[in-house]
Design a protein that fits this description.
It is found in: Membrane. This protein has 72 residues and is mainly alpha-helical. The chain has helices at 2-16, 20-54, 58-63, 66-71.
Length: 72
């Protein structure tokens, strides 16, 4: 029941807002910043740390994970 309760709590706050466009643009900026942060962290920072410890290509290691991820 919790997801429905949270959905209706957020929905009630959205209905109370006068400028929904401001909410959507703010939420879009937050989502963009979050995705960009994940891309930078997962695509640059973590491979550099992996390379620093193992001195091997991190992307060859990640390409080997495609099969287990698709199976899961």
């Amino acid at each position: 029941y919790v997801p429905f309760g949270i959905m209706f709590l957020v929905g009630s706050k959205i209905v109370e807002m006068e400028d929904v466009v401001l909410l959507v643009t703010s939420l879009g900026k937050y989502i963009f910043a979050s995705i960009l942060g994940h891309i930078i962290h997962g695509g640059i920072v973590l491979p550099l740390i992996y390379f620093g410890f193992t001195r091997t290509n991190p992307f060859s290691f990640l390409s080997g994970l495609i099969t287990p991820f698709t199976t899961a």
